[in-house]
Amino acid sequence: MAKINEEARKRYFAKIAPYRKKIHYLKNKEHNISRMLQSDDPAVAYKRLALVEDYLTTASYHLAMNTLSVSLLGIRSENDLSEAKKSCFSAIIQLESVFSNLIDAPFQDYEALLEATSSLDEFKRYSLIRKVGLALSMVKDGFTENSKWWWPLMALEARLAAVAKNCLNLQTLLQGMDPRFEGHRERTEYFKLTQRLLQEAANGYRLKYEKTTKRTDDFRLAINFLGALQRLSLLLGRQNEANEFKKRSEIWRRNMESDSKKQKP
To answer: In angstroms, rounded to a whole number, what is the distance separating the alpha carbons of residues 207 and 88?
Structure first.
């Protein structure tokens, strides 16, 4: 590795100083809010969502410091990328607490959780998911594909996919996507994003199974994400699409069972 120019190092530390100060402030704020989280507090869901915003802001500062490290020092900051990843992880944990982490489940199983945030504009929910997804994507790009964090980040993206689906009010979604209703374009775009995230999660776990683990639970997760896609397609009356997901699930399940038999001594 080339020796880092001392002048560049000084400029780098001068530029990241304000970010470090802001991160320190946010860490204290996050700690104080976390201490106040009580399950019987009627506002607990909104406090958790406020934490998500703070975690995302913290992640953005760490990502900015990594960018400065690359541009001024010529090396990526593994520490800042790792901290950004941790902030994304914390954000997803809070989102799961608010909206659930269920994958292939009936809407009734998590409807009450969505109702608990009914006063929050639906498009703000969608915006939070998009922001977390963007932050995760930037962390992933920073680490590169050969990083040891590639598969853990894939798993985080899969968890985000489940939350993205659980943010949808499936009782009103179909009507809300009607072109005659205000916000139909935004709902349709978010639905397409959710479908893409679920599909990437299914493919990601299938690939993880094939390339690294050969663990049945990874294959089952892949199949569960296909099941979630099938449910959404059925909800919208897209029978052909639902049938395709069902066929793929059945093929994957047969492959999983076949592999399991081969692995037995």
So the answer is: 23
* Rounded distance between C-alpha atoms, residue 261 and residue 203, angstroms: 22
- 20-40 burial by CB neighbour count: b if 16+ within 10 A, else e? eeebeebeeebeeeeeeeeee
Residue 205 near residue 218, CB atoms below 8 Å: yes
Average pLDDT along the chain, 265 residues, taken 10 residues at a time: 77 96 94 81 89 96 97 94 97 96 96 92 95 96 87 97 97 92 94 97 97 94 98 94 96 92 74
Distances, alpha carbon 233 to alpha carbons 100, 166, 236, in Å: 21, 15, 5
The predicted model scores a pTM of 0.93
Distance from C-alpha of 8 to C-alpha of 71, rounded to nearest angstrom? 10
Give the span between the Cα atoms of 186 and 129, in whole angstroms. Answer: 13
Longest dimension (CA), the chain: 64
pLDDT of residue 1: 43
Residues 6+ apart with CB under 8 A from 56: 87, 88, 91, 128, 131, 132, 135
Dihedral sign for Cα atoms in the order 10, 13, 18, 24: negative
Cα 115 to the chain's mean position, in Å?
21
Q: 122 vs 25, 27, 39, 252, CA distance in Å?
A: 29, 28, 23, 34
Cβ neighbours for 79, distance < 8 A, ≥ 6 positions apart: none
